[in-house]
């Protein structure tokens, strides 16, 4: 069998990693047999792959049935789906929203903290008694009631740290998106290379 | 007019019925089923539909399967044959199918 078709089968197998071995072997054997029939009828590898669809989609068609036959939630089912998505690269479903929430909120609160600290300091130093400012409290390591200037310094410092953490998360998010994108591109490149042979 | 979505809904249930009908006559292998269904546009389906469907019918006990070597030097083929349970299921489907046709005819003739 051509290398492209073998690679195709290997990919399908990877997606079905958590399916019991005997069942997985049977599934792959049948797909392989189908591929050979198509080849025997004069279809070239590209046509065959187009007909079968993406390896992930073909595997998903099997998984959908395997998953629906077992009712309810089970650990096995969970592992099955995890194995599928670990190959499908859906880790982004988790990483992207996490970083996506952390980055802007850290940046926002990093900026808000020194502002609030500053207001508190001004309020304290000039005894302005601005409404609600009594609710702003600087608390560090269990110690409260700092002198106003020290309190502001603490908020400013932690604000900067939070802001930097937020920026870091944001950079990480961009890096993640770029990395996964380039892996995908690399794989596509490899596919084309094989098809050319 | 786009009837594709309606067609695919109709197809889902009908395919199962047609496949069981075919296999009730003699054992078939997957590729043979796909080829035969291909003769009718409304029923034609790809490997990604038929193989998992056969697998489900197998697991539900409506079909049984066996591998058989080919004489043409191809890898072994997986044949499906109908079980008693499958025959019962098919009879019930045929009953419902004719009910459906009668109903449609009845509405048309009104």
General description of the model:
The complex is a heterodimer of chains A (197) and B (110). Chain A has 197 residues and is mainly α. Chain A has 2 domains: 3-87, no CATH class; 92-196. Helices cover 78% and strands 0% of the residues of chain A. Chain A contains 7 helices and no strands. Chain A has helices spanning 3-15, 21-40, 45-52, 55-69, 75-88, 92-125, 148-196. In chain A, α4 packs antiparallel against α5 (75-88) and α6 packs antiparallel against α7. The radius of gyration of chain A is 28 Å and the shape is elongated. In chain A, 21% of the residues are buried. Mean pLDDT of chain A is 79; it is low at 183-197. Chain B is built from 4 helices and 3 strands. Helices cover 63% and strands 13% of the residues of chain B. Chain B has one domain: Orthogonal Bundle (Arc Repressor Mutant, subunit A). Chain B has helices at residues 4-25, 30-37, 47-59, 84-109; strands spanning 28-29, 63-68, 77-82. The mean pLDDT of chain B is 92. In chain B, strands 1-3-2 form a 3-stranded antiparallel sheet. Chain B is an alpha+beta fold and 110 residues long. Chain B is globular, with a radius of gyration of 16 Å. Chain A binds chain B through residues 26-27, 29-34, 36-38, 40, 51-53, 57-58, 61-62, 64-65, 69, and chain B through 29-31, 34, 46-49, 51-53, 55-56, 59, 67, 72, 74-78.
CATH 4th-level superfamily of chain B = Winged helix-like DNA-binding domain superfamily/Winged helix DNA-binding domain
Helix-strand makeup class of chain B: alpha+beta
Backbone CA Rg of chain A:
28 Å
How helix-rich are the residues of chain A, as a percent range? over 70%
Shape type of chain A:
elongated
Question: What is the radius of gyration of chain B?
Answer: 16 Å
Largest interface: A-B, 22 and 21 residues
Name of the CATH class of chain B: Mainly Alpha
Number of strands of chain B: 3
Major β-sheet of chain A, in short? none
* Largest sheet composition of chain B: 3 strands, antiparallel
Second rung of CATH, namely the architecture of chain B: Orthogonal Bundle
Helix content estimate of chain B: 55-70%
Number of domains of chain B: 1
How many structural domains are formed by the residues of chain A? 2
* Secondary-structure element pattern of chain A, one letter each: HHHHHHH
The tally of helices of chain A reads: 7
């Amino acid at each position: 069998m051509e290398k492209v078709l073998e690679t195709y089968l290997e990919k399908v197998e990877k997606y079905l990693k958590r399916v019991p071995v005997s069942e997985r072997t049977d599934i792959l054997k049948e797909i392989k047999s189908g591929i050979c029939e198509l080849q025997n009828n004069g279809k070239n590898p590209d046509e065959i792959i187009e007909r079968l669809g993406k390896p992930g989609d073909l595997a998903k068609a099997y998984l959908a049935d395997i998953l629906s036959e077992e009712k309810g939630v089970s650990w096995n089912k969970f592992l099955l789906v995890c194995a599928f998505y670990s190959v499908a690269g859906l880790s982004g479903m988790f990483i992207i929203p996490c970083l996506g929430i952390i980055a802007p909120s850290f940046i926002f609160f990093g900026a808000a903290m020194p502002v609030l600290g500053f207001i508190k300091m001004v309020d304290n130093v000039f005894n302005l008694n601005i409404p609600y400012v009594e609710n702003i409290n600087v608390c560090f390591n269990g110690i409260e009631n700092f002198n106003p200037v020290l309190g502001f310094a603490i908020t400013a410092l932690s604000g900067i740290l939070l802001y930097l953490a937020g920026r870091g998360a944001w950079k990480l998010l961009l890096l993640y998106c770029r990395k996964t994108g380039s892996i995908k591109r690399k794989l596509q490149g490899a596919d084309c290379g094989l098809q050319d042979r | 007019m786009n009837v594709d979505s309606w067609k695919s809904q109709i197809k889902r249930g009908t395919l199962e019925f047609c496949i069981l009908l075919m296999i009730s006559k003699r054992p078939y292998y997957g590729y043979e089923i796909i080829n035969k269904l291909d003769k009718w546009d409304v029923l034609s389906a790809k490997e990604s539909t038929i193989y998992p469907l056969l697998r489900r019918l197998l697991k539900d006990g409506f079909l049984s399967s066996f591998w058989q070597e080919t004489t043409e030097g191809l890898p072994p083929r997986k044949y499906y044959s109908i079980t008693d349970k499958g025959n019962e299921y098919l009879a019930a489907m045929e009953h419902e199918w004719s009910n459906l046709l009668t109903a449609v005819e009845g509405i048309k003739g009104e």
